[in-house]
Amino acid sequence: MEPFAVHLDNFTGPLDLLLHLIKKNEVEITDIPIAEITAQYLAVIDTMQSLNLDVAGEFLLMAATLLHIKSRMLLPQVVEDSGEEEEEEDPRAELVRRLLEYQKYKEAAGQLETLPQLNRDLFARSAPAPEVVEEGEGEFVSIGLYDLMQALQQLLRERPAPLVHEISTEQLSVADRINQILGALQGQQSLAFTELFTSDGGRHEVIVTFLAMLELVKMRLLHLLQNKRFGTIWLSPAVIDESGGTLADEESLGYA
Fold first, then answer.
1. Structural domains in the chain?
2. CA distances, 174 to each of 8, 115, 211 (Å)
3. pLDDT for 213-236, tens place per residue?
4. Sequence-distant (≥ 6) Cβ neighbours of residue 192 within 8 angstroms
5. Deepest of 17, 171, 178, 188, by most Cβ within 10 A of its Cβ?
6. pLDDT in tens, 129-177
């Protein structure tokens, strides 16, 4: 049986991932700690590959570039005949230039997105606003794929792989987990990301639940929101039925 694969449209490239890690670690773009950023970059790529997500060649090329920069920084300085060390260009300079240029265009794109689009490219559909559970945390904003990857990494760290492989007759499928998530959201306006996972569940449950959630996002039946940077991730239904429920009928989705 072929593995279940989910493909999303919000892979915006390796530079976007690097900017995300730089902001998360609160470091300057012009003084990147290559060793630390490279380790975190490779960890995200490894997580994406373990989930059978499509990792483009440009992500792997950037990983090779980071390793090349790290190796150049480890080389000793060249000493001239006069006894003075020859000043060489910082190996990070080209990467920093690309990151600054990418950040400039990304910020410009963000400003364009703030321009009015309602009733031009977008049309509103009435629905109740998601319930704000934490007071004073700020407004909810949409989160990206990399934030989800880091939340998944945290869950996997809390559930280390068992030393002994246990064979279980009960297997949880992505379709079953989709129906369970729909049931959990029934009658609710929001649900915490961590509430999807039981304390006694293993890594198999974590992976299947994560794929089911991505599939619901792909079908535009689910919104993922945060009300502060690196805060709790909340699941909010994107479709409200006429009877006051949360999501569309499960049989209409083909997962019943």
1. 1-77+89-124 (no CATH), 133-160+171-256 (1.10.10.580)
2. 16, 38, 7
3. 899 988 888 888 888 777 888 888
4. 133, 232, 233, 234, 235
5. 178
6. 666 555 555 677 777 777 888 888 888 887 776 666 566 555 778 888 8
